[in-house]
């Protein structure tokens, strides 16, 4: 059920009859280094129930047990809801405008997106909404469900009963429980002008066709290539697969995705590595102008309080800091911040969350600095490059400057590894050089120092 509440004089937000309590204690957020925590939440705190008079309007369909996704048109205020076997278009006041039945339909995991073998036994299967995204460029609603290997439909944003295009492509997870995250952001071939749909999908392994679905991908929004991989070469492209040796035993659960500063990010929960069943949260990043995903990078992220580690991210949102929070974090009011709710795992080898949670707030500037710090450490020869569940890991290679003039000459030509990761710019060319064993370029000492300052 969806409910709308009036604004309170205290400015507190109430959603689904749950009131967010005031902070009780100070915690610390970690990107493997401490950042600042703003608020502590606990499901064990008393829940204040709203009076019926507080509800302005509500929407409920007695035929549907679960609603999965909700998006609001920022231009019109219309509300779109994806549910099990249903898709709804609501007015800004939650009045029903259009209801579309999307399932159950006859399907089998033995069937591909296009056809079924004769021996496949179809049965009525629920269509669980896995992704619901507004494409403002074309005023379309993209809805993806678990049926038919995770296919999507493109609908008229003004009337969702008008199906503009059915995409015969496996895009999202094809069962009720596996995760899918999708969002639209700049991407190849010409960002920021060109937009793509970024998709993160948990491997299901319930069909011979699932090996063709990338774990992370950038998909085209062009009508003629709708939801195909945006850029594809023989061995590379805007996609990343978990390798065949790892995908069954190394599940990645995608929680949230967002765009900031020339990068696209996913928040995930996954094991520490393929051999250690200790679960943690990670922040995955890829450059938006990277046509080959050479820039694909991960860092761990968690939230701690009084020595208690909240290691499993449950939900997240990216927004602007505002003046008060910006002052606390040492950033501007217009800078991006990541709000993320974490839970403790029910044991070190479990991905099941306990009923206590914490809300951490991260500056995206600090996140970019952490990514850059890890990359720079690799240039110093520390750690490994490569993720063993994608491709074999290799020891980082130490690089050093070799001067061809006096050291005190600011315009002396120096050979350095040409990799400067500016916070506001995505350097996929540099990422390609990382993949190609640190190609060295010639720059002056003055250029090197200036770029290093900008990068920090």
UniProtKB/TrEMBL annotation:
Annotated SMART domains: Sema
UniProt keywords, alphabetically: Differentiation
One of the GO BP terms on file: cell differentiation
GO molecular function ontology, one term from the record: semaphorin receptor activity
GO cellular component: plasma membrane; semaphorin receptor complex
Domain Sema, first and last residues per copy: 40-456
PROSITE patterns membership: SEMA
InterPro entries documented for this protein: Plexin, Semap_dom, Semap_dom_sf, WD40/YVTN_repeat-like_dom_sf
Protein name: PLXA4 protein
Native organism: Acromyrmex heyeri
